[in-house]
């Protein structure tokens, strides 16, 4: 198996060398076309990087040739990686020969990165799963301990409950015996009460029969009395009907007489009313005349009073001012005043001479 793997490794190494030479020749042949276009300058750098990757792959293959004593699984893995690398290189070569680009190499690189990331995620999940398993195992141990403790507690509770059950059985036996005796006593008491109630009901039924017989007798007597009274009432009704008819006839006659008297009185009343109306008219006119005379007398008295006041005022003014016939009185007053002044002057002169 080791010799076959070595042969396969040498074959792949030869193929890689051939592919590398083809790649270099293709890069030199298409150098003019690629450099003439400015947007493809980055692709040249990527091609150089790919050539460096090929060199690294050759170095790795040489190192793999040296380690020929590796295990078979590891050699298979190396062989698979080499095969994948050769496939990728051939695909990129074809792509470069066809269109002058190596996008397939980028895509392969991206796929490998995605696989590595996925493998890394798987490893992380595996570690997390291991941690979770450890925590769950620890929780399981804790649960087992708790269940053991709980089982012990339950065993103790079961023992207590068994003791309580025995006590309850003894108590229920005593209570059942007591209940049997009490029910028998209550049954005897109820039977006695029922017999007493039956006797009382029998007495009550006898009393009711006696009362019903008495009520029937009283009813018959009342019925006879009412029939006799009904006959009397019928006789009185006939009497009162006859009396009503006679009285109505008499009252009708009286009513006719009263109507005639009313008509006569109405005529006299109308005549008296007309006379009263004439009397009222004469009285009203007389009162109006008297009121007018009274007002006139009052007005004359007021005028006379005002005239007298005016005359008195005028006389007073004439006296005060010495007008008219009172002029001589003024002169006499003035003379008296002059005489009095002369007397006073003479008396004053005499006193001075003394």
Question: How does this model look, in words?
Answer:
There is one protein chain. By secondary structure, the chain is mainly alpha-helical. It has a domain at 2-101. 94% of the residues lie in helices and 0% in strands. The protein contains six helices and no strands. The chain has helices at 2-29, 31-36, 41-66, 72-99, 103-321, 327-353. The chain starts with a helix and ends with a helix. Residues 30-51 and 64-70 have low confidence and may be disordered.
Mean pLDDT: 77
String of helices and strands: HHHHHH
Largest sheet: none
Euclidean distance between termini CA atoms: 207 Å
What is the molecular shape?
A: flat
Q: Give the low-confidence spans.
A: 30-51, 64-70
Specify the number of helices. 6
Short description:
This protein has a domain at 2-101.
Question: Which helices and strands appear, and what pairs or packs with what?
Answer:
Layout: H1 2-29, H2 31-36, H3 41-66, H4 72-99, H5 103-321, H6 327-353
Region (Disordered): 23-55
Pfam families: IQ
Organism: Alectura lathami (Australian brush turkey)
